[in-house]
Design a protein that fits this description.
The protein is mostly beta strands. The chain contains one helix and 14 strands. The chain has one domain (31-171): Sandwich (Jelly Rolls). The structure holds zinc ion (ZN). The site of zinc ion has 4 residues, from strand 5.
Length: 172
């Protein structure tokens, strides 16, 4: 059963609000997106992928990332200080096809981003040049506020890679 709240209206009529109706503004509703790069020859000075939250009212939680690199190297995830970067635009694709379809975010591949706040270094675990892909799990811990970003760098020169960030927005 709903809890009923009765308010007196302007003309003396009554307006009934129901708790269930209020819950349609679910503070915890998730709006999930995937940002997936096409392969590119990434310069040493450029990054693989960066996603910046542009929403002043929603967190962006990146819950997992996929990275494939064709060289023996380290891969560094970091949270740079906000700036305006240029690169190849990556469109966020909504995973909930019934939800919002435009992510309030900017995503770029092959952008020159100054590295700061490294949160994770992983290696490709290859002794020689080979093909290596892996998933990275962040769980619910990684939360981006307004103009916060997550990015990754490929430390060695790679000629091909694939990557994706998967995350969701929710109201703060
Ligand atoms: Zn959050």
């Amino acid at each position: 059963m709903s809890n009923e709240i009765t308010l007196a209206g302007y003309s003396g009529s009554q307006v009934d609000l129901y708790e269930n109706a209020l819950l349609t503004q679910d503070q915890d509703e998730r709006e999930p997106f995937s940002w997936t790069t096409v392969t590119a020859d990434i310069d040493l000075t450029d990054n693989g992928l960066i996603v910046t939250n542009n929403s002043t009212s929603k967190h962006l939680h990146i819950i997992r990332a996929f990275v494939f690199i064709d060289v023996t190297t380290a891969i560094e995830f970091y949270m740079p200080v906000f700036a305006t970067w240029t690169g190849t635009a990556v469109t966020g694709i909504p995973l909930n096809r019934a939800g919002i379809n435009i992510a309030p975010a900017t995503a770029l591949s092959d952008a020159n981003v100054a590295q700061a706040n490294v949160i994770l270094r992983i290696a490709t675990n290859e002794l020689t040049t080979g093909q290596h892909g892996q998933w990275v799990e962040f769980g619910d811990n990684l939360a981006l506020g307004y103009h916060d970003s997550l990015a990754f760098d490929i430390v060695a020169e790679s000629t091909a890679f694939y990557s994706a960030f998967i995350g969701y927005f929710h109201n703060n």
